[in-house]
Amino acid sequence: MSQPLSASIPPAAVPPARQWSPATRWAIFMGVLVVVIGVGLLASRPAYARFKRYRAAQVAREASRMLAAGDVAGATRLAQTAQKMAPADVDVARATGQVCAKTGEAVGLEAWENVLRSGQATRQDWLDAAGLAIRLGRVDRSGPWLATASKTFPKDPAVLRMVLRHVLRLGDQARAIQYARGILREFPADPEAQFDLGRLLVGSVDPRARGEGQSLLWDLAAGKSGFRERSVELLAAGSDLGRAQDELLVRLIEGRTNAPLSARLLALDVRARIDPSSKSALAERALAMAPAVPTVGEMSTLALWLNRNGSNAEALGLLPMERCRTNPVLMSVRLDAMLALGQTNEIGQIAAETPNPVNAALTATARGIVAMRAGRRAEGEALFRDALKVRPRIPQALFLAARQAESVGLPEVAIEGYQSLIEVPEFALDAGRRLLRLAKPLDDLKLSLDTLRLLNAFMPGEEIVAGERTWMEALFGKESEFAFAALGNLARTRTNQPGWRYGFALATWRRGDAAGGLALVEQPPMDWETMEPRWQAVYVALLGANQQREAARRLAHRIDPNRLKAQERQLIAAWQ
Question: Please, is 212 exposed, middle or buried when counting C-beta atoms within 10 Å of its C-beta (0-12, 13-18, 19+)?
Answer without folding.
Answer: middle
